[in-house]
Write a structure and sequence with these properties.
single chain; 5 helices; alpha+beta; two-stranded antiparallel sheet; 7 strands; globular
Length: 188
């Protein structure tokens, strides 16, 4: 079969998990209490249930207006894996050392309430409440040089390819969120 004229696979279009597919398991694998306020986070960090998330060589934490920089250990490991695999795929290109940008992490019911005032699509009973979930933007990446529109689209699909591979290995659920310009990722 001649594949020279076949359209390339657009992985972002294949990332379409829905809340009903992952919410129960997110609760089972994540924190068991529903956090109402950020002051409830500290005891979970002290007991090792949640881990602080900081900038790394493979990802940058964006300004978090509606979430807090904490994840469960398994979700942090997944984020690290995504960052490393993304870096591997851009190695030896003009976009080498580009970092992904994490735009949302752990939420509380109070932060969701604030978010819902701005974003009516935000889900009240979100997997972000369990510490198993994070969002990675695809509208910007951390790079020292100016990124063209074509390069941005290429980086988005490289990230989508990494996520598709991990989803195929049952490491996560992923939703390509067009309205929020991010990939919504839930650790499995």
């Amino acid at each position: 079969m001649d594949t020279s004229c076949m359209e390339p696979v657009v992985h972002s279009q294949l990332l379409n998990n829905r809340v009903r597919e992952y919410l129960a398991e997110s609760y089972q694998k994540g924190i068991k209490i529903i956090l109402k306020h950020p002051k409830q986070i500290t005891p979970l960090v002290n007991s090792g249930v949640l881990i602080p998330i900081k900038n790394s060589e493979t990802y940058l934490i964006d300004t978090l207006w509606y979430s807090y920089p904490f994840l469960t250990p398994s979700a942090k490991k997944l984020l690290h894996t995504i960052g490393k695999q993304f870096q591997y795929k851009v190695k030896n290109t003009d976009l080498e050392n580009t970092r992904i940008i994490v735009s949302s992490l752990l939420r509380t019911t109070s932060s969701i309430k604030r978010l819902r005032r701005k974003n009516r699509n935000a889900v009240r009973y979100s997997a972000h409440l369990h510490g198993t979930t994070f969002d990675i933007t695809y509208e910007s990446f951390d790079q020292s040089k100016l990124i063209s529109r074509a390069e941005l689209e290429s980086l988005k699909e490289i990230l989508a390819n990494v996520l598709f591979e991990l989803k195929s290995k049952n490491k996560c659920w992923v939703t390509f969120e067009r309205a929020q310009n991010c990939f919504h990722i839930v650790s499995r």
